[in-house]
Design a protein that fits this description.
The chain is of the alpha+beta class. The chain has three domains: 68 residues, Uridine Diphospho-n-acetylenolpyruvylglucosamine Reductase, domain 2; 113 residues, Uridine Diphospho-n-acetylenolpyruvylglucosamine Reductase, domain 3 (2-Layer Sandwich); 82 residues, Uridine Diphospho-n-acetylenolpyruvylglucosamine Reductase, domain 1. The protein is 25% helix and 29% strand. It is built from six helices and 20 strands. Strands 6-7-15-11-12 form a five-stranded antiparallel sheet. A four-stranded mixed sheet has the order 1-2-5-3, with helices on one face. Strands 17-18-19 form a three-stranded antiparallel sheet. Strand 17 and strand 18 form a beta hairpin. Helix 2 runs antiparallel to helix 4. It is globular. Bound molecules: flavin-adenine dinucleotide. The site of flavin-adenine dinucleotide has 33 residues, from strand 3, helix 3, strand 9 and strand 15.
Length: 284
Amino acid sequence: MQLLYDEPLARHSTFGIGGKAKYFIAVTNVDELRQALLFAKQRNLPFFPLGKGSNCLFSDEGFDGLVIENKITHLTIDDCYVTVGSGYSFAYLGEKTAKKGLEGLEFASGIPATVGGAIYMNAGANGKETKDALFEVEYIDENGVQKQFRREEILFRYRYSSFQEMKGMILSAKFLLTQNPLAKQKQKEIITYRLDTQPYKAKTCGCVFQNPSAEKPAGKLIDMCGLKGYKVGGAAISMLHANFIENQENATADDVKKLLEEVQKIVREKTGYDLYPEVCIVPR
Ligand SMILES: Cc1cc2nc3c(=O)[nH]c(=O)nc-3n(C[C@H](O)[C@H](O)[C@H](O)COP(=O)(O)OP(=O)(O)OC[C@H]3O[C@@H](n4cnc5c(N)ncnc54)[C@H](O)[C@@H]3O)c2cc1C
């Protein structure tokens, strides 16, 4: 376990944006994670649990504390129960379980998250959310105390879990899936559709705004306002999917924030809908 100083956060966000973290550490097991939490506590530093940074807009000024990158990646599949470290790739988990004929996480295969980040955000796609297949979660609080939560004990809503109110880190998860030989086929269809309709090769953070409703998704509202291609600095609304912002030319976090504000204003004026960010705007 190596402590890094002034680590550029742009390297750790799919947006490719962000200043430096004062301290940065990657943890591969619970003991390392405990040590990292203690390091922060002893110095009275804020800490930030980082998955794959696929939903993080870091500040241009960086993060004045400890970023803890999650590399806890154990995996056990026992019949229909899947126990997995929170740093495991959510996309790969979706692919792997579908390949084994297990249904429930096919939607995950297009989401470039960690399992922990997906639970924290209650990530979802294709009519499914992470909570749907979840059985239980192991959590460690800021004092290093481990806790177990059954799914019923966690509050979930659209892109929300009660972990967003807590200070600590999701450590591992158990999912309960069902046998279905068609799972692999379903997963393949999902990934093909996504690759055709979303800008996967660009530097983005997925959808930047929450959908006001299923009938009025944010992308449709933004598109209706003629905003595809709209730019602030190096950040632009994707031509392929209007709810994605692309970092096209060394965009700064400020460019993205200004673009978010302008889109909110224009959409409100032209459609009456308020848009709220889905992307986590990480304070300095
Ligand atoms: C191309 C692309 C497509 C996407 N498609 C989708 C989609 O279809 N559906 C969807 O919902 N999202 C989608 N996203 C957004 C993103 O993948 C999700 O929000 C995902 O849940 C973020 O996971 P992460 O591990 O990258 O978390 P990060 O971005 O690293 O962190 C996000 C938040 O979760 C917290 N966090 C991360 N890990 C933990 C942990 N172990 N314990 C406690 N807190 C933690 C962080 O502190 C932060 O507040 C997409 C993103 C991209 C780039």
